[in-house]
Automatic annotation (TrEMBL):
The lineage of its organism: Bacteria, Pseudomonadati, Pseudomonadota, Alphaproteobacteria, Rhodobacterales. Residues 32-148 form the Serine aminopeptidase S33 domain. It comes from the Bacteria. It holds the Pfam family Hydrolase_4. This is Serine aminopeptidase S33 domain-containing protein.
Length: 303
């Protein structure tokens, strides 16, 4: 029987967050926070979170400020930015996880944006594992040609025009994903259309990242068929961290008898599908085993 999640409000009163806590079933192996991808509401992760909890991994999901269950008031009035989501909100969620599970190991799983805050956080000794999935320093020319028209429309045509007119990104109306606060969209656009990614925001909306700070073992994971954050972008991100504490893991859908893992769908259950939509073998590899292909190439390169 799947665990029933508990609604957990947390964070400062100025930017309250709403999470869902999936308590571990049986003996708890670890407690895990799942930092979500940009524009992906926490409800999308509910099947994965329940699956993890059934295997003894208590899991906290949540929505970033002014998004999903954490939205307060009209989205066009939100001052939220990507930096708020990647730094302050992720930090608040990690502290809430420690309060929910006062003993035992803590894990951090970051999906896409959720894994880009690693160098901006400090981790207590109880954090024994950090996993990122599809987290990379993506530039718009990294995408395959088949996906590029959609990317160019999102960053240079429909996305900026609609955001300028409406005061927020009306992603649902445009068929480009979820609605997002304007500040989130504009900062996201800046990162993904500049070669330095978030470098121009360091010292402004972002603190100085410390890629060389001691951190728990870091696993940077990506599906080989991810066109949103292609493996090359994950490799670019991985190169900033000390290779002695970092592992790059490639997930080929064929290994699990699947035709597709992708970017968002890796952690989701498709429409009308059962738990995991057949992705459980990949989930098991992601969290409980380490049998996915490990890239043996050196990770540290010129920054």
């Amino acid at each position: 029987m799947s665990p029933t999640p508990e609604t957990i409000p947390f964070g400062p009163s100025s930017s309250p967050l709403v999470g869902q806590w999936y308590p571990a079933q049986g003996q708890m192996q670890a407690a895990m926070v799942l930092h979500g991808a940009t524009g992906v509401p926490q409800r999308f992760y509910r099947h994965f979170a329940a699956w993890a909890a059934e295997r003894g991994i208590g899991t906290l999901t949540y929505d970033y400020r002014d998004f999903g269950d954490s939205l307060r008031g009209p989205i066009r009035n939100s001052p939220a930015s990507m930096a708020d989501w990647a730094v302050a909100d992720q930090d608040a969620a990690q502290r809430k996880l420690a309060a929910l599970a006062p003993t035992g190991p803590l894990w951090v799983l970051g999906h896409s944006l959720g894994g880009l805050g690693v160098a901006f956080h400090t981790y207590p000794a109880r954090v024994s594992r950090i996993i990122t999935l599809g987290s990379g320093m993506t530039h718009h020319w990294d995408h395959p040609w088949s996906y590029l028209p959609k990317v160019l429309a999102f960053w240079f045509l429909l996305g900026p025009l609609a955001t300028a007119v409406t005061g927020y990104l009306p992603g649902r109306r445009l068929g480009l994903g979820a609605d997002l606060p304007a500040g989130v969209y504009w900062q996201w656009r800046r990162w993904c259309t500049r070669r330095g990614f978030f470098a121009s925001d360091i010292g402004r909306s972002l603190p100085q990242p410390d890629f060389d700070a001691p951190h728990p073992p870091l696993e940077l994971c990506v599906a080989t068929d991810d066109v949103v954050v292609p493996p090359v972008a994950v490799q670019r991100y991985a190169a900033h961290f000390a290779p002695s504490r970092t592992q790059l893991r490639m997930f080929d859908p064929g290994t699990y008898g699947l035709k597709h893992l992708g970017h968002v769908s890796f952690l989701g259950a498709g429409l009308g599908a059962g738990l995991g939509a057949g992705n459980e073998a990949a989930w098991d590899d992601l969290l409980l085993h380490q049998t996915a292909q490990v890239d043996a190439a050196p990770l540290r390169q010129a920054r």
